[in-house]
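Open question from group meeting: does this chain pack into something compact, or does most of it stay loose? Before anyone orders reagents, we agreed to write out a predicted structure and look at it together. Recording both the input and the output here so the notebook holds the full record.
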Amino acid sequence: MGRMIQDDTTRDVLDMLNKRFGPGGIMEMVELQKEFDIFSSDHPLEQSFRLIGIEPADRGERQRWYNFLGTLKDYPSDQPNVNGYKRVIQAFRQALTQSPYLPVLVSVHAMKENPQVTFAADGSAPLIYSTQSYRVLSIPTKPSQVARKELAAVAKQRRAKKAAKK
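Structure tokens returned:
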């Protein structure tokens, strides 16, 4: 998330996800999934999130959010032969169709430590201030400053190669 959308937007989207799929919203999402099959291979993830209002308010950031979701197709996941994009869809589908219906905590982790989208479906109490069990979906990310520096270094190398060919 960090390389594509602003840090404030990342926090806002994570807050929206964690409220929508948290203890106060999970059963509503279970009912919506039963009625509308929101998370399935028949629907792009971007459309599923748009349908339930998980998107930044700022138009420019919204487009970057949807672009970020598309890049998840290039991320590996904790499931063999399943990319990160499909894993997110599977994770929400599983959480909303398989009892017990536990809230989902959407988190991020350092991409350099683990480049995979992961989903822990068993339920744990990941919040130190709560005993609530959650399923945990975690998405790898880089801090925006690190990602921008890496992109600048790649661009510099590309320019140097072009200059050397001339």
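Observations to bring back to the group:
The longest strand covers residues 134-141.
Residues 144-165 form the longest helix (22 residues).
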